[in-house]
Amino acid sequence: MTEHTILRVVAKLTIPFILLFALYVQFHGEYGPGGGFQAGVIFAAGIILYTLIFGLDEARRVIPPWAVRALISGGVLIYAGTGVACMLLGGDFLDYNVLAHKPAHGQHLGIILVELGVGVTVTGGMIGIFFVFAGRGRRREGTVE
Amino acid sequence: MSTFLGLYNYWIVVLLMMIGFYIVIGHDNLMKKLIGLNLFQTSVFIMYISAGAIDGATAPILGNVDAPYAHPLPHVLILTAIVVGVATTALGVALVVRIHEAYDSLDESEIIAACDTGDEPAGEHRDNA
Amino acid sequence: MDDLMIEALTLVLLTLLAVTGLAIARLRNLFAAAMLTGLFSLLSASVFMALDAVDVAFTEASVGAGITTVLMLGALALTRGREKTVTKMRTAQALLVTGVTGAALVYATLDMPHFGQPDTPVHTHPVRAHYLEASEKEIHIPNAVTSVLASYRGYDTLGEVTVIFTAGIGVFVLLGTARRRRR
């Protein structure tokens, strides 16, 4: 689709804002609607738009397959790691009160970390699944681009 | 009349649930069955959120408002359920694609017939890269 | 007046949802059915907004109308796009089962408390007041849904993240490896 000038220019204008909005939703999930899931999906939607306009190879250069796998596993690791850190600091699994000197601050920190883990995994999962589907069609046609 | 207004949400939920159920059991096409499953799931979400809503309430984001807040717990449960639903759909769709590649058909009766006659599916070798 | 408008809007949206569901059941062109599923998700996101579930509406709109539609269209591009008809016998059987189940469910809903009343067992249970208060006092964040999701029910959310992880790995295993046609 790269020869379509309007699509290319509009995509280049809107994709940065989509990604920025995803970050906004991620970090303002405590003050308004939002959180990790929505942010991950919006970020993945921005990358999917990029893939549709500029092709799978370009998108694979932006986010290589090893990065997608790292994102998917890294998010779960961050989440479970927060729980284990709470245990190491003396509380129960996922008991955020022990993470900081005051329980309220500990809860806040725990929620931020946990939502980050969720957002990272959802981003990686959605991007990875889309890349797999897009890559499958190409291989079947046998064309190498 | 007040019964109608009070229960309309739930009747529509039952209708959507039954449409989804009918699509799953009454159609042979695997993709159509997945779509029906999605319909069924969404109707269950609407039922939960309807149970947690109050007339004249506001969203459960605390601030200085006079109105009561909607119940936050169904929202949490349905958030989880939506994301689990998309994960299930993604896996289901991947399975459908593989089945199509093996049997060259998306029709359940054709696939079962091919299995019964012992037709070997169009085989591919895997190179485990 | 405001309440009346919201109730009317909810009724209209729910009726549109039912019409869309019937259309999806009748269509044999799968591309059209996938697009209507996206429309269905968007309409249900609007219903959630009318019922004051803002987080849920956000998630349903992005996930249902975005990701699910893309996945289904991607799969339809890899397979075929039309559905074959089923026998009349099969349709009649399915309609019978569905009709009986639907009638039983509607009969069950006649006992349910009316939608929107603040004195139903769902709302009088102490957990609602506890979560709304504690989100202010113990955690100090305004969004009660996030505080319940990430802190009070954090273990469930860990399971959910693991489900996404598993789905990603599952799709990789199913479709991610290269294939060579056997000659």
Automatic annotation (TrEMBL), chain A:
How would you describe this protein's topology in the membrane?
Answer: Multi-pass membrane protein
Q: Where are the transmembrane segments?
A: 7-25, 37-56, 68-90, 110-133
- The residues covered by the Na+/H+ antiporter MnhB subunit-related protein domain are 6-127
Please state where this protein is localized.
Cell membrane
Q: Which UniProt keywords apply?
A: Cell membrane, Membrane, Transmembrane, Transmembrane helix
Which superkingdom, per the lineage?
A: Bacteria
Q: Signal peptide position in this chain?
A: none
On whether Cell membrane is a keyword of this UniProt record, the answer is yes
Tell me the protein family, please.
Answer: Belongs to the CPA3 antiporters (TC 2.A.63) subunit B family.
Q: What PANTHER family does this protein map onto?
A: NA(+)/H(+) ANTIPORTER SUBUNIT B, NA(+)_H(+) ANTIPORTER SUBUNIT B
**Name assigned to this protein:** Na(+)/H(+) antiporter subunit B
Q: Which organism is it from?
A: Spectribacter acetivorans
Automatic annotation (TrEMBL), chain B:
Record InterPro entries: CPA3_antiporter_subunitC, NUOK/Mnh_C1-like
Q: Where is the signal peptide?
A: none
**Membrane topology recorded in Swiss-Prot or TrEMBL:** Multi-pass membrane protein
One of its Pfam families is: Oxidored_q2
Origin superkingdom: Bacteria
Q: Which residues cross the membrane?
A: 6-25, 37-54, 74-97
Q: Where is it localised?
A: Cell membrane
UniProt keywords (A-Z) are:
Cell membrane, Membrane, Transmembrane, Transmembrane helix
**UniProt-listed NCBIfam families:** PRK07375.1-6, PRK07375.2-3
Q: What family classification does the UniProt entry report for this protein?
A: Belongs to the CPA3 antiporters (TC 2.A.63) subunit C family.
Q: This chain belongs to which protein, by name?
A: Cation:proton antiporter subunit C
Write down the species.
Spectribacter acetivorans
Automatic annotation (TrEMBL), chain C:
| A Pfam family it matches | MbhD
Ranges for domain MrpA C-terminal/MbhE: 96-178
Subcellular location, record wording: Cell membrane
Q: Mind listing the UniProt keywords for this protein, alphabetically?
A: Cell membrane, Membrane, Transmembrane, Transmembrane helix, Transport
Q: Could you tell me the membrane topology recorded for this protein?
A: Multi-pass membrane protein
| Domain MrpA C-terminal/MbhD, first and last residues per copy | 16-79
Transmembrane segments in this chain: where? Answer: 6-25, 30-51, 57-79, 91-110, 161-178
In terms of PANTHER family, this protein maps to: NA(+)/H(+) ANTIPORTER SUBUNIT, NA(+)_H(+) ANTIPORTER SUBUNIT A
Which NCBIfam families does this UniProt record tie to the protein? PRK12504.1 (NF009159)
* Designated name of the protein: DUF4040 domain-containing protein
Q: What is the lineage of its organism?
A: Bacteria, Pseudomonadati, Pseudomonadota, Gammaproteobacteria, Salinisphaerales
